[in-house]
User: Fold these one by one.
Assistant:
Number 1:
Amino acid sequence: MKERILVTGGTGYIGSHTVVELQNSGYDVVIVDNLSNSSADVVDNIEKVSGIRPAFEKLDCLDLEGMDKLFTKYPGIKGIIHFAASKAVGESVQKPLLYYRNNLVSLINLLELMPKHGVEGIIFSSSCTVYGQPDVLPVTEEAPIKKAESPYGNTKQINEEIIRDTVASGSPINAIMLRYFNPIGAHPTALIGELPNGVPQNLLPYVTQTAMGIREKLSVFGDDYDTPDGSCIRDYIYVVDLAKAHVIAMDRILNNKQKEKDMIQILKGMKDRFSDDVKKYDYIIDSAKNVFSKYGFEKIITPVVEATELFERGVGEETDVVSKEMYTFLDKGDRSITLRPEGTAGIVRAYLQSGLHKSDPVVKWFYFGPMYRYEAPQKGRYREFHQVGTETFGIRNPLIDAEIIKMGCEFLEKTGIENLIVEINSLGNTESRKRYTDDLRKFIESKLDKLCHNCKTRYTKNPLRVLDCKSESCQEQYKDAPLLIDYLDEESKKYYEETKAYLDKLNVNYVENHRLVRGLDYYSDTVFEIKSENLGAQSTVLAGGRYDKLLTILGDVDVPGIGFAAGMERIALLLDENNIKKESKAVYVTYFEETKDYALEVISKLRESDIKVAFEYETKSFKAQMKKAGKLDSKYVIIIGEEERQEKKLVLKNFETGNQEKLDIDKVIERVNEDV
């Protein structure tokens, strides 16, 4: 069975045929249709044709909440074919607002929900109406888009623009837009075809209904076309061929084949970062260095690739990270190696391998760099992502736990992130968790038939992690589950209470969340998450906890540890660009052909004085050079004419005030450095 596909308007004419062809190609299909122009009986006929009954939900795509729940009900939808729309040209002229609401909002809802639910691509059913009255026939993709001649046609044009802008914004989705017109015919079985509700808006069903006597007559308009007999010649496309084209388009999206010519494209889930993105990342790293160094942390750099066993033992074989999400492969020496999915395990390995636990067990390190997880891309989450984090070894004391949480808050506040929420919990020690796990498993056992597949798996392997499930229906089942806090022994309770007391002394506002367990197996005692109200549902920005047994697991060394990690992509989403220190704009140097040699001498001296310089490599007119300086938003422009060359002077012009003066180069350097 191939991937699961959502077909909106799947009981309609083209939609129903496309569902059949998707099923014939091995796809699992879910249909959404409000039945405004079709019948639910079509689902029965689709089953008769293909032998497979597709899932069907009577639902309007305008219902954002309903569509959100649908994606949750049918997890794993990888692609959407979007047919659902009002489509009658004449009606659109009479009811333009209905068409704009139905056709635009339905698409916007889908595009908003796709990243959230890991949907990879969308096929949009567009129309050749975007070409208007073409200048040349036959129409090709090179034909110009013309002003729409109806609200219906305009919705297709606007929707195409919405899709282009969404993809261009960096949203982790792919899209193909199919433009066509005049589909006709029916499936060879005659079980599905074109049977609209009410009066047909297309020619062929009107013709057939007239022939059957359902319609009184058929009126033909026009007898002066540029044809031998003056009648209109129309081209048609067989609906089954059109349906197969949609399947091919979906194949191309899911197999990442929709490339322009032979251009090699970035891998799905990865992202190029430049310009403003890089400035944000640099700002985050600088903020981290500034805060962490005050707490006595030093930077560590570890390899991106580690032995797979490190993560299997350290992170836990039963975690989603290890079982589903790691990039693991054999190297040329037939060794299993993995691109690191998180930072802690590798840093623990470095600590143990260096023997620091023998000589100087107390170590404070911070790190930043790329991590890799093969999971569904969404806003602020990519398959290659970046983390900044800290690890502390050799200290088990509630004060360090509180201080680490305080430092995490200070770091985020340093970047300018506001409205922070600190959530804490205690997982207790091994004995406490064992007693709790036994009772939790008994509780879950009575709920198994109502739980998702992941929770059923976790029930047998690691029941504690069911509490971390993101399914709303599962969380509803767990609302009366026992709480780990009630199972803590005296030592764990004392440690937790002292940690909270230190947080109070350090003026850290926090809330207790006794269902907070974190996603990795190595945590014990203190766990915490720092969230931002400004990030929506996926609100966690920084998270971590204590892992006193991890070093025992990896190196049979009894050394405690605690740390946290923060996703740089998440932080970048929250950054106010006004808070980021603006880079000084380059001084722009203008010159003429006869003064080029002197200009190069000046440029070298400016750069030796750490002044950023921009200039044109090819001599251009003075007007063109000044225009370029304005585009670069340069505060200062240096003008080098023949007189300046002979006098060994420079004209320094302030672009903001318009003032200019002739100065020695040393004075220019002094003036610019004072300002920049």
Number 2:
Amino acid sequence: MAYKSSGSSSHPPKPAPSRDALSPPELRWNKDGQPVAADFDDPYFSASHGLEETRHVFLQNNGIPERWNTHQGPFHIVETGFGTGLNFLATWQAFKQFNAKHPSTKHPSTKHPSTKHPSTKQPPTKQNSLWLHFTSIEKYPLSKEQLSRALSIWPELSDLAKTLVKRYPPITPGFHTLSWPEEKVTLTLIFADIKDAAKQLSAPVHAWYLDGFAPYKNPDMWADELFTDIRRVSRESHYRGVTSTFATYTVAGVARRGMRGAGFNVERRIGFGKKYEMQAGHYMAFSGPEINPLNYQTPWSSEAPTLKPAAKILIAGAGLAGCTTARALAERGYQIHVFDPDGIANGASGNVQGGLYVKLAAGDSATHTDFYRQAYLHAVERVAEILTDDSKGKSWDDCGVLQISWSEKETQRQQNFMARQQPPESLIYPTTVEQNQAASGNALSNSSLYFPKAGWVAPADFCHALLDHPNITFYTQAIERFEADNDGVTAIVNKTNLHADGLIIATAFKAKELLGEQVHLPTKRIRGQMSYLDPSNLPNAQSVLCARSYLAPALNGRLCLGATYNLNDDNTELRDSDHQTNIDHLEEFGPEWATAAEAVKVIGGRVSFRCTTPDYLPLIGPVVDSKLFVERFKQITRNAKQIPSTTMPWLPRVWLNIGHGSRGLASSPLCAEILAAQISGDAPPVSNIVKDALSPSRFIIRALIRSKLPEELQELVEKT
């Protein structure tokens, strides 16, 4: 809370500190050990008792926790100004206390996911579906060290504070989502200016914590744009039972006028301590022009129908996309049935080892960079959570990744990236040839970019662990076809009708087979061949090395090297020529590897096929009937600004999670959370911009606007 006055040894050495693109604020510490923001000359919380003030102002005056008694599903709180995190921790503590009085009844977990016939009936999991989602916007995020020191004054919050500090993200712009499924708590931190961040909110907000430094000291925060966005995502009870409330410590007129303009009644209420008054209220029916409930200004950005907690959902595909999605939904109480005739992680997700990192380019669009940076950070946390320390070195290892500047072009790319992005050292930093020795264990030819939290993962182990949940059942069978309407989905499995509330297709390029001509999917299939090498006569790699191919540290007597990249190649057989291509890339790692390559021994390999999209972003979200879409919106081919006010022809109760290409380890966990949020009606863990950029309908929209429809859909336009 920002209180307002009245008104590892294997890692290479880090370079000298530099000012990041987003830097922590300058703090002073008063005689009581409390932080004071130097820029605003304001303390972060009350000198009398900041924790009690938080409970009074924000919890009590938003009706928390009383409102949780009757609420089901996600409960979304948005805070303006994360500060030290005191408001969040106080709310989390209250949530824990509430759940202790209202325990969930859960079935015991099994060691491994079961393989049963689809007709087997599983007893539903009886549990309270209440989930706390706390979103906080902060322009001046504290460093991890500052956060830890500031929260040390509250002993009763020490356990929660340590948990928060441990997971606190690197200070990089954009969305950072931390989740504690066992606690049913999600924290989304948005490091950005409030004017930009508020525009990226989409899910309805149940309670507003209007915090931030005093209006007369920080007028930019309390601008008209903020209240416009508050109005946009606030609701009355008739909308899914959502009633938006707000509370704020300040009685300033700008806050009162702004909230009234946003459609709230505003009451002066008893303040805390020396502050005699505060303001609070709830959203009322707004008499002016209504704003589209979940933003946006185009029908295709509107919200698809959601599913109630404990609904039965089928998932086609048990690769990384399917398994991460299954786990994200199971943790929210949904009953998940996963189908894959090839077993768990036997497609593109079946490599023995995969490198967990992303290749960020300076020339990428902001959306592209934001997504993959956030996805990578989330994946690192998720892998460590699911696989745990017990399996470290066996199923995963955060041994670091060195992206080697193996060519002049790559060197220039890395330099441009660092100059433009200025990432914090906890995310990535440049290293010299000498520094690489400490990380790799052997001499490398060139400088590198080093990812200290990255490493490798055994995808199959990760997928099996993800499916180890009492709400998930796995079947070694295929969903052959399906029919969907507003009442549910009927899937054909082994000539048997299987009914469910929803269907998620996570079968990569095979999704076209299930969806047929009804849905336009411009995916492409890319062959990749891995080579397994005998490590006996090769250097000992201590970190993942990445040039044109990547190489992970030896595991179970073999080194994994690859993979090739062959477009329009459907050959499933191992080829000696592709093994040689991988071996030729060893010289890019350094002289020791170049010499050893002459005597390298191939002991096996694997062929799989990546599913990619034209813009190299995944396809995540509800599915649109392409032909119906063209029929309804064909007039925009003549005028892109003349968008008909009609509804989107969503394919009922069907969602998609495909197109991860070679980045599935990094992108799948976050995409699973995005999809789970869409299905449950929760706040998405990404911005509106990123969510729309991942939408499966984006290509048909672009094609229609540009009058470049595929032949079968162009006929619909020509008929008019």
Number 3:
Amino acid sequence: MRKIFRWVALGASVFTARADEGMWLPSLIENRIADMHEKGFRLSAEDIYSINQASLKDAVVLFGRGCTGELISPEGLLLTNHHCGYGQIQQHSSVEHDYLRDGFWAMSRSEELPNKGLTVSFLERMEDVTPIILKGYTSDMTEDERVVLVKKNSAALIEEAVKDGNGLRAKVEALYYGNQYFLFLYREYSDIRLVGAPPSSIGKFGGDTDNWMWPRHTGDFSIFRIYADKDNNPAAYSPDNVPYKPKKYFHISAKGVQEGDFTFIYGFPGRTQEYIHSEGVRYIEEIGDPHKIALRTLRLDIMSKHQEQSQKVRIQYSSKHANVANAWKKWQGEVKGIKKMKTVATKQAYEKKFAQWAVGTEYEGLTDKIAAIYAELEPYTFAADYYTETVRTVELANFAMSFARLYKEVDGAWTFDSAKAEELAESFFKDYYLPIDKEAFVAVMNEFEKNVPCGSKPAFHKDMMAKYGSAEAWAKDIFENSLFSDIIEVLLMTADGKTAEQLQADREKVMADPAFVFFNEFLKWYHADILPHTTRLNQDLQLAYRDYMRGQMAFAESTDGAAGLAAFYPDANLTLRVAYGHIKGYSPADGVYYTPSSTIKGIMEKDNPEIFDYNIPQTLRDIYATKDYGRWADATGEVPVCFIATNHTTGGNSGSPVINADGNLIGLNFDRVWEGTMSDIVFDPDICRNISLDVRYVLFTIEKIGGAGYLLDEMTIIGE
């Protein structure tokens, strides 16, 4: 084991001149700082990450559970993407107060809107705890025994790390497929209030059409404020709370950016698979992604049709539509990029060389072993993908299951959390439209019937198709006869003061409900016939990949020395990372070159009042007509909107600060170019580009569109 971790440490401690690939641990950034300086960065490693003094890490937060945000004022003002705050904006919206359509700007602290359930987390520190986590491990242990040991040691370490309370939470994360473990200690704040958001015609300009595309003209930002108690500690929402005083906040550069400028991104990338075997890539390219794309296309078409017919439905399903569409379009670009890079063939060639080198070592036969596991796993993964993209997308059935789980047996009698049930029902029906759900049910279950092999289907599905003869007839029974289709029926079930006999009767009624039965029968099939196999085989894969990761490092060391080891950054896992690069255009096809920046002129070229996604506010048209840009115009006389760079990013980096060579904020990361979304699997420096919102467009929008220029007074703006 000692040799293994020497390799990992070496891989983190050397560098060579290389393409802008990699998501590096900030605690180890000292080992990359010379390369960063060579490429133009002017700060020290201690400026980036320190536990002894305020550093840039203290201005970066995990926003919610899957985005990044950054502090931009000494008064707790927080900047993130519009799509990261979309759920909160939607929850505050109604037909009477449509903040999605019209935008929202608090004109005083008292107008800032609280957001139940929203948290932000600051990283206090990270540290390598591998020896602690693997204490007691012996080579003769089974994998199950190892898992139990890791969980036990992790739990003890976490308990010790958070013993002081005060908003602390901790997590132990495996890196390099379990060859290394890090402790991440966070401080979590829960009083987060919405301060401002542009209308969706700016914040979501281009909609799904422009998503993942370049050139881009989306003003993808929203503004929140963190509140704390009088001692600056985390506290539940209270009118008595005060704005959080950050250890560090970003100064904002309004000087502008140029092609070739150094860019640095700090954030929480979600998941990558850079070291995946060719068979894993083949499944993604040929089977997994194409089927998921097809299923989501059906659902999106149904949602869009109904949204176009009703403003209320448009609001109800705006967030749902965006969530479904995001991965749908990403997968399309991913498949295209994998094919273009001939990734499967390239990995197969590498695996052949690895196998030849591995003869006579502990890694002999490892690539063939992994391929065999994938072959056995494939039908179960396919069934699981279909279960996720069909059964689990039926909203009514999910609601029925969530409602049923509120019945608890205590001492032989049934109890029921009526308050939680009422809250659940109100939340569900607020954003539910039965015709969409019913039509989508028919569409996806027809695909389940057509594409899932007969031997993989649950007996329940076969019985229901035999009984009803079609998905349409099955849907008619569920949606017309389920009590969960009727809010009045559901609310009657949530009444207080029911006797034990009444609760028993209610529960029996729920258990017999067709929506619940549908979900529950598929769930039982999944847990009995699919999950045990995927769990076992993925565990086998995890163990094989742990060996394969070590083997790849040994292979690189033996063939390329330190230069080869420099490539081994850990896969993303929603922990804080550093990615650096530079502003640069790209050529997606022969004869085509995209420059690295866009301006307000491009917004006006796309403006179309007849198309919802391109219908900009009249205020913006008026400003453009008069060129009343104030201090935010660039050298060309236009307002900059977005730019692209070579930073290695993924989901979770949404909202990440984009920082210049001096550590000042120049933009806000929000997307990648469509042609480069395969960067989660394979990085191409010629085509992979992250898309960022130019901070000058943020400032322009706040001042000129939102009329909230007072917010700029909180910020430190350089180079106006």
